[in-house]
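Hey, resending since the last one bounced:
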Amino acid sequence: MLNQNKIEPQCFIDFKKNNSPKNYEKDCDHKVRECLREALSNEQKGQCFYCEQEIKGSRIDHFIPRDAPNEKNIECNYYNLFLSCDKKESCDIKKGNKFDESKYLRVFSNRYACENPSDFFDYTTIGKIKAKKILSDDKKLRATNTIELLNLNNSDLVKARKTIFLNLKIYKDSGYDIDEIFTFFNEFESLFKGN
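The C-alpha cells again:
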C-alpha cells in the first residue's frame, strides 16, 4: 500500500464550497469526479493505492465505506478517497464495504491518527507482502488482516513483485539508482523505497 501524501485539489475545494455536497453518488457530478480521478492519479503516481500496480482501469474508493455506521462527513472528504485498480481479485473490489478500524490499518480515520502503510509492511524476495516483525501484536494483526482483506498476496501480485525483485539486481549492477529504476516500472513504489 502507498503512503498517503494527500493535497485536496482546488477544483474539489471549490465544488464543495459552491455545492455543499453530502452524498458522493448523488451530489458529485462527472466533472468533479474526473477532477478527483486526475488528482488522485497524480498523487499516487498512476499506481493503485492498495496493490501499487500501475492503474489501467480505475475506481475512486472510499477507504471508510460511505455507508459505514457511526461515520460522519466521510462521503465527500478528500482524505477518505483513494484511486484503486479495478481488478476483481484484489484491492477495492475485494475489500467491498468491509470496515472495522480495530481490525485494519487506519489510513483515514475520524478517531485515530492516520497510519503509513510502509510502517507496517515488508516484502519478501519471492514477491509476498507481510507484516513487519517488529510490530506490536495489535499492529501485526491489523497489518495481516489488511493484507487478507485486500488480497495483496494473490498469485498475480506475488508474480509481479517477484519479477521486479529479479530485475532490481540487474538494473543496480548496470549503474542505475533506485529512483531511475522505479521510473522504468512505475509500480510497486513501496517495494523500491524499502530497498
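Residues 10-193 form one domain.

Sorry for the duplicate.
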